Automatic annotation (TrEMBL):
Residues 37-135 form the HTH marR-type domain. InterPro entries: HTH_MarR-typ (IPR000835), MarR/SlyA-like (IPR039422), WH-like_DNA-bd_sf (IPR036388), WH_DNA-bd_sf (IPR036390). This is HTH-type transcriptional regulator. It comes from the Bacteria.
């Protein structure tokens, strides 16, 4: 990548990383009207919550609040909207606990996967001229950054096992 080998101070590096992370966040988190123009139907909170439940399995409101470091009342409002839209359903705790858990409905899973397909197509277009090595390096660095942040903050995201033949 151009400029990677250039000498810069730690502060300059941190300032550039902060700016680029700020700009990165705007590319994926588009206003709802723009979502629909691009074929997406879920708002950001539903996309994130459904993705987490899909990755981890049914979760209580409290577990979701902990996973995202949000107030329970915030997650409760988001969950109510997802229940109303038939994206999730309340089920008894499969582990026998007292609290009911949220599970993704078939409709919720279909909408999540449809939105994810739109996101992946968009990423494919943005990265179509990148080499396989650059894409892999970018994925590895993003993963390393996120895992470090998760470790520091105590909010790990469940990930699939690494693919051995990379």
């Amino acid at each position: 990548m151009p400029g990677c080998a250039a000498e810069a101070s730690v502060l300059e590096d941190l300032q550039e990383i902060e700016r680029e992370l700020l700009l990165l966040a705007r590319h994926h988190i588009l206003p709802t009207s723009t979502h629909k123009q691009h074929g997406r139907t879920l708002d950001r909170s539903a996309y994130l919550l459904l993705s987490r439940i899909e990755a981890e399995g049914p979760m209580t409101i409290g577990q979701l609040a902990d996973a995202f470091a949000l107030d329970v009342s915030t997650v409760n409002r988001q969950a109510a909207a997802m229940l109303q839209a038939d994206l999730v359903e309340r089920i008894p705790d499969p582990d026998g606990g007292m609290a009911r858990k949220l599970a993704v409905t078939p409709q919720g899973l279909a909408r999540l996967h449809a939105d994810r397909d739109v996101v992946l197509r968009g990423l494919g277009q943005v990265l179509e001229n990148w080499s396989a090595e650059d894409r892999r390096c970018f994925a590895d660095l993003l993963g390393r950054f996120n895992i470090t942040c998760e470790r520091e903050n105590g909010y790990p995201w469940p990930r699939p096992a690494p693919v051995a033949d990379r």
